[in-house]
Amino acid sequence: MLSIVPEISPDTFSLIIIPVFIFFARICDVTIGTMRIIFVSRGMKMIAPIFGFFEVFIWIIAIGQIFQNLTNPLNYFAYAAGFATGNFVGMLVEERLAMGLAIIRIITQRDATNLIDYLRGAGYGVTVLDAQGKQGPGKVIFSVVKRKNIRDVEKAIHEFNPKAFYSIEDVRRAAEGTFPVAVPGPTPFHAHLGKVMRKGK
């Protein structure tokens, strides 16, 4: 009886398949490791250990293949390339998920009424303090936002106070708070621009 599956020569398996396997295994375990670190920093005690288990399990398999094929330099290259690629993929996945909260501090020397009104109108919790800087009086604006809304707030800053200084930091844990209600459609910033354009007409 003829076999439909083609036979793979030992040389092909050693020189091609094993390095490719090591490469993708490293991508998986480093990506999972990146996510695990993020979960640890967020205080997610139940999820982080699960990711840690799969991270180490895949790593053991990959390093085992290295030790079984020490004479093939492609394995070392695949191991290093998989590690580098895994870091990049992990950061992309983290950006897509955009989990957690961030605090945005905005310092502006000019009138920030429009920016404050926009942020509050869009549903963001805003705290405003009077400040005195080198160039005179100003405002310090604090807002804790979901990480997926950071770009919306940044667009509003560039639109209403383009020269304002602002910084963004991750928040590990927060209680209560005011956040925009998630609804289908454009972001709060684009919805606000649409209202402005309609009024202009």
Number of domains: 2
Mean pLDDT: 81
Rounded radius of gyration (Å): 25 Å
| Anisotropy-based shape | elongated
Helical content (DSSP H or I, runs of 4+): 55-70%
Largest sheet: 4 strands, antiparallel
In percent, how much strand structure appears in the residues? 15-25%
CATH topology of the largest domain: Alpha-Beta Plaits
Provide the low-confidence segments as ranges: none
Query: Can you write the helix and strand succession as a string?
Result: HHHEHEEHEH
Number of helices: 6
The order of strands across the largest sheet is 2-3-1-4
Specify the CATH class of the largest domain: Alpha Beta
Summarize this structure briefly.
The chain has 201 residues and is α+β, with helices and mostly antiparallel strands.
Describe the structure.
- The chain is of the alpha+beta class and 201 residues long.
- It folds into two domains: 10-97; 101-200, 2-Layer Sandwich (Alpha-Beta Plaits).
- Helix content is 56%, strand content 16%.
- The chain has six helices and four strands; from the N terminus they run αααβαββαβα.
- It has helices at 10-41, 47-68, 73-97, 113-121, 150-160, 188-200; strands at 101-108, 127-133, 136-146, 165-171.
- The protein has a four-stranded antiparallel beta sheet with strand order 2-3-1-4, with no helix packed on it.
- A hairpin with a 2-residue loop joins strand 2 and strand 3.
- Helix 1 runs antiparallel to helix 2, helix 1 runs parallel beside helix 3 and helix 4 (113-121) runs antiparallel to helix 5 (150-160).
- The longest helix has 32 residues, at 10-41.
- The chain is elongated, with a radius of gyration of 25 Å.
- The mean pLDDT is 81.
- Keywords: Cell membrane, Membrane, Transmembrane, Transmembrane helix.
- The chain crosses the membrane at residues 12-34, 46-67, 73-93.
